[in-house]
Design goal:
One of its GO terms (biological process) is acylglycerol catabolic process. Helices cover about 45% and strands about 15% of the residues. It has a seven-stranded mixed beta sheet, sandwiched between helices.
């Protein structure tokens, strides 16, 4: 009798929760703020295998021929570089950033098998689109973008067709929504369910910043808005397969970093929770010293 009563209780809970979840999933994405709209308006799109990819390309310092390419992290967008865009434009002739497929203002197809290899090909296609295939490039990457940068470095060192020409590479520490990564990377039903229930409060609590670099609420909201744009929250579990790809292709990407002749540096915030682990890892891999 108690077992039957318990089963009926769960049925009632389900009947209540299912409509609530359905309503939540149909909440429209937030409107773009004026700042985010300005970022969007200043950019452009190119097509990669039928998908629209957003990018920004600004001309800066006169008398310089240096070009810097910025690769953002998970789960945000090129807007991450907003605060340093103008200072970089004062140093470099051109400053370029893109939203990876599934991020920001780029298309977010589903179902889709997102991969680091595809994202690297998108970067190469954008560089060709901008007429920079023969230009030596300075790359600055963060988090997810670090892995894409290592695949690009591997292709460059292997002299693959369409590869980038590296002038320098700067990898910056990252890691976001830490409490969820282990659960979401396995592409299970639970991962699918959790990513669809992720809200602004969970997103804000999950992001990792130093004590002196905390974004304002408005900046957090802009990050969340860019994630929700075009239902980006519905592809998070697919994109997170990159964590498994990091393990599967570790030798390929670590090998590229340890054998390249291109100048490479790590830039790590000492207040970051990744400071100690990354310092030990880079030392054991004989990677150039942390900056």
């Amino acid at each position: 009798w108690q077992r039957r009563e318990r089963r009926e209780w769960w049925i009632h809970v389900g009947l209540i929760c299912v409509p609530l979840v359905a309503v939540y999933l149909h909440i429209p994405a937030p409107h773009l703020s004026a700042t985010l709209q300005k970022w969007h308006s200043a950019g452009d799109f190119f097509h990669f295998r039928g998908k629209k990819i957003f990018y920004r390309d600004s001309y800066g310092a006169l008398g310089s021929s240096d070009v810097v390419l910025l690769l953002h992290g998970f789960p945000t967008s090129s807007y991450d570089w907003n605060k340093i865009w103008d200072p970089l434009a004062q140093r470099f002739h051109r400053v370029i950033a893109l939203d990876f497929l599934g991020f920001g203002f780029s298309d977010k197809p589903r179902p889709h098998r997102y991969s680091i290899f595809e994202q690297a090909s998108i970067v190469e296609a954008m560089v060709a689109h901008l007429g920079l295939s023969n230009q030596r490039l300075n790359l600055i990457s963060h988090d997810y973008g670090d892995t894409v940068a290592l695949e690009l470095l591997y292709r460059s060192d292997q002299n693959r067709t369409g590869h980038l020409n590296f002038n320098s590479l700067c990898l910056t520490n990252g890691g976001t929504m830490l409490a969820f990564l282990g659960l979401l990377k396995d592409s299970s039903i639970l991962a699918t369910f959790l990513t669809r229930l992720t809200n602004f409060m969970i997103f804000q609590k999950g992001e990792v910043f130093g004590p002196y670099t905390q974004p304002t609420d408005a900046e957090f909201w802009d990050m969340w808005t860019s994630l929700r744009y075009n239902d980006g929250n519905l592809v998070l579990d697919s994109i997170l397969q990159y964590i498994n790809q990091r393990f599967q292709h570790r030798d390929r990407w670590v090998g590229a970093l340890t054998s390249t002749h291109a100048p490479c540096k790590w830039c790590l915030g000492q207040q970051s929770p990744f400071w100690t682990t990354t310092s030990v890892t880079t030392h054991s891999w004989r990677i150039p010293p942390v900056s």
